[in-house]
Fe-S protein assembly co-chaperone HscB
Amino acid sequence: MHPDKFVHASKHEKEISDEHSRRLNESYKTLSEPFLRAKYLLKILGESETKEKDLDPSSLMEMMEWNERVSEMSSKEELTAEKTTVQNEIDGVMKELGKQFAEKSLDGVRTNITRLSYLYSLRTLIDNRLESMMGV
């Protein structure tokens, strides 16, 4: 399957090898990243893709306010502390997600996958702000 093993193969065999290699890498990424794995498991269970509506209005407002607070932070120390807070929240949601999958509480799974999506975006925002402060 590895493309290096098909150096002397026909064009068609190389294309097949490349496609299998791409799918294998994509599968590995999906299974190794908890957020992507949770979304995939939900899909396997026949559930639809998560949407914004999976968060109740108060949780959605909380995420928007949190995002705004991060946008207003001006020091590296504030952002670093907030990143730790966000990561702790992600870790807590991941634990809850594991319980919900075990209990087959798919509504809760969808809600927490949506929440994770917002938290990962928030963490990325913090990382980007920290990078810009460091001149990277």
In short: The chain has a mean pLDDT of 87. The radius of gyration is 20 Å. Residues 106-134 form the longest helix (29 residues). The chain has five helices and no strands.
